[in-house]
Structures are given as C-alpha cells and as structure tokens.
Amino acid sequence: MAWSTSVEGPSSQDKEDTSSLQTSADPESQCRDRVDKNVTDLVRIMILRYRLRKPITKAQMLQVVSKRGKRQFPVIFKKACKCLEVICGIDVKEVVPAPHSYVLVNSLDLTYDEMLGDHENMPKNGFLIIILGMIFLEGNCAQEEAIWEFLNMMGVYAGREHFIYGEPRKLLTRTWVQENYLEYQQVLHSDPPRYQFRWGPRAHAETSKLQVLEFLFKIKGIDHISFSCWYEEALRDEQERAQARIGPVGHATAKFMAQPLLPQLKNEKKSSRCVRKGTHISK
User: Of 11, 17, 182, 208, which has the maximum CB count within 10 A?
Assistant: First the structure.
C-alpha cells in the first residue's frame, strides 16, 4: 500500500499508523465481502430451487444468509436477482397471493440449460445471450480478442475457473460450438492464426437479434435509441423471420404487416449513425 512503500522502510510509528489505517479501512471492506459472499450463497440456493422447479420463500433464503447479512437482506436479494437475470437468464417473480414466496423462470428461449441434469453445472443462458449480443454488435462476426477484451471487463478470464461459467475458454470454443450455438473459425489467411465467432445454427433457431438486443437493453437499463442502427437491423431480421414462417403473402398483406414498424424506422434513421467495429457494452 502507498503508506508502506517508503525507501527507508516504515518506522515503528509508521507501522502503528499503517495498522490503524488498515483497521479503519477493514469494516467497509469486510462489509462488501460479507455482502458478496451472501449474494453467492443465495444465488446457489436459488439456482438449486430453479433446478428442482420449486418456488423459494424468504424464510428459506434467510437460512443461507449470515446473521449480519440478514440486516442487509433487501440489498443482497436485489443483487442476487440481478445476477440470476444477467448470468443465468432467470427471472425471479413473487407469487401472488402467497407473501414472500418466489418462482424462478427461464426468461429466454434458449434450451441449453434445460439439457443439463438437476445437479449439473450452473445455468448459463444469460451469459450465452451476452456473447451472442456481442457478436451481433460487432457486425455479426466478432474477433476472439474483442470477445476476451469485453469479458475481461466483466471479470471473466480465459483459463481462470469461474464458479458459474466454469473455464470460459472451453465453454466458448468447445461446449457451445459442439452444441451449435457458436461457430469458431480461423480468420482466412491470418498468420499467426486469429479466430472469430459467429452465431451457430442453433442460436438462429432458438433466438433472434431482436430478443438478444432487448435482453441487453433490459440488463443495461437503456433504450433502443442508443443503438438505433442495430435495432433497425433487428427489426428487419424479425420481419424476415416472420415472413419465412408464414410463406409468401400478397403485396397488401406485406404492407399491412410492415406498417407498425415504419414510423420507428423512419424517425430513427434520420439521426442514427452506425459504427460497428470496436463497439462494446460497458460493464
């Protein structure tokens, strides 16, 4: 620390001052550590209930929270819910009329988590959607170094085990590639070899650009105006998918279907500029 880097070394008085500074700083640090540990423990028990397809009560949640943490339960609960939403794609909804009882539901259409056994691994759908979103924002093809730069900002590192994601590089380059959610390919003629990610066929089948973008908007608390260029592309993609599902239609029907989207596209296009490369979602 800054106060212990003197060239001559700290005197006994300096040591006492350092000790008192560390002691005075400890309570705040310890409080953050307690909250983080309680959030982690709460997330684990909530995921277990999700796996068992059972609701969870406030009383059950308080059982895994420390005695000191009980006073901060509203903060801990809010953080745990946000973690489940962002990382796992799980929404926590209060049961009505039962007070302080909650159900945990998959908020995304991806089926990857449903394939896992009740006690296998942690749900990762939210994380997968974030990766798909990153690829979309990078122009539907993201360089591997851009992906890791972004993940490092989230505190996720290649080769470092994560309590929810496991080993991230294996997850991205092997597991999700084998499950056809991602495509991982060498950049043509790159020397030394560089790699890039694209959506796999299963990602295209189970979700859409619009769903991915709306999830990112939700977890970041922003509206589509900030990403109007990508929003327009996502809307066009949604229209094309709908058209493909229902087959050929007459000109009048197509015009009717497109009508609700036209005002948004026209209004936003005037002021939107799209810079694809180097676009990142901040932590």
Answer: 182
What burial class does residue 6 get, using C-beta atoms within 10 Å of its C-beta: 0-12 exposed, 13-18 middle, 19+ buried?
exposed
Interhelix angle 209-220/228-246, nearest 10 degrees: 140
pLDDT digits (tens, 9 = 90+) for 39-68: 989 998 998 898 888 999 999 999 999 888
Q: Is the dihedral of CA 88, 84, 89, 182 positive or negative?
A: negative
Cβ–Cβ under 8 Å, residues 238 and 210: yes
Q: Which domains does the chain have, with CATH numbers?
A: 2-106 (1.10.10.1200), 121-283 (1.10.10.1210)
Average pLDDT score over residue span 10-33: 54
Residue with the larger pLDDT of the pair 76 and 278 = 76
Specify the higher pLDDT residue, 214 or 163.
214
- ω into residue 192 within 30 of 0, thus cis? yes
Task: Say how far apart CA 63 and CA 42 lie, in whole Å.
Answer: 9
Three-state DSSP class for 30?
helix
What's the DSSP call for residue 175? I
What token pair was written down for 220?
């970041």
Is the overall model pTM greater than 0.70, yes or no? no
**Tokens 């599902």, residue?**
245
Q: Tell me how crowded residue 205 is: count the other CB atoms within 10 A of its CB.
A: 14
